[in-house]
Amino acid sequence: MDTFQIPVIAIDGPSASGKGTVAQSVADKLGFHYLDSGALYRLVALKVMQSGTDTGSLDQLSAMAKNLDIAFINGQIYLDGTAVTDLIRTEHCGILASQLAAHLPIRTALTERQRAFRRLPGLVTDGRDMGSVIFPDAVLKIFLTASAEVRAQRRHNQLKEKGIDANIAVLLQDIQQRDERDSKRSIAPLQRGADARLLDTTSLTVSQAQDAVLSWYNAVNARN
Ligand code: DC
């Protein structure tokens, strides 16, 4: 079977929209593989922080991104053999990831790695350019969003669960700055494609959002 026949559900959207939670739960429900593409950019950022790679040298950065030693095993994320699942979730790592992600050589270095996640019986993936660049032939494309205020609150709750103290006003500012950078960059900007369905989760629970994605997917399948 050619890989392009393997179904992909692409869920793109802004920071802290909850797209990862929804994508993971849809993948679990369908028994599909799951790719959190943002984690790859965060891993590049963490490696930069750990190795002190010169952020001014795109050649060095893209070579490093291409050769990153990473693994996703049972919900844990590893860099150079060490679990870094929580370490890559810090705001600092997210902000550096967003800055690095604006450079084409870094994005190109990660392209094939992302496409390699497309395996039977299917893939659910989330990010910024999953439907527009990485999997343009995805059977279902969704732009999942929520108001910036609700996203700041969700991020705050997430951090609190991990025992991390954070200030909502600062989180809101970070989210707005990240939205601005991710959507205004010239390469693979975050934007809703004409072929993507809008899922505004501002007043939806995770389970309602999951149901919406599954019913769209079932409708697509019934048509094909
Ligand atoms: O989804 P996230 O917040 O974990 O992603 C971190 C950063 O990585 C995000 O601010 C922009 C970048 N990113 C990207 O440019 N393209 C993707 N497909 C995923 C993430």
CATH class: Alpha Beta
Give me the count of strands.
Answer: 8
Q: Give the uncertain stretches in residue-range form.
A: none
Mind telling me which CATH architecture this is?
3-Layer(aba) Sandwich
Give a quick account of the main beta sheet: strands, pairing sense, barrel closure: 5 strands, parallel
Structural class, from helix and strand content?
alpha/beta
Compressed to H and E, one letter per element, the order equals EHEHHEEEHHEHEHHEH
**Morphology call:** globular
Topology-level CATH name: Rossmann fold
Give me the oligomer status. single chain
What helical percentage do the residues reach? 40-55%
Please give the alpha-carbon distance between the first and last residues: 17 Å
Bound ligand species: 2'-deoxycytidine-5'-monophosphate
Tally of individual domains? 1
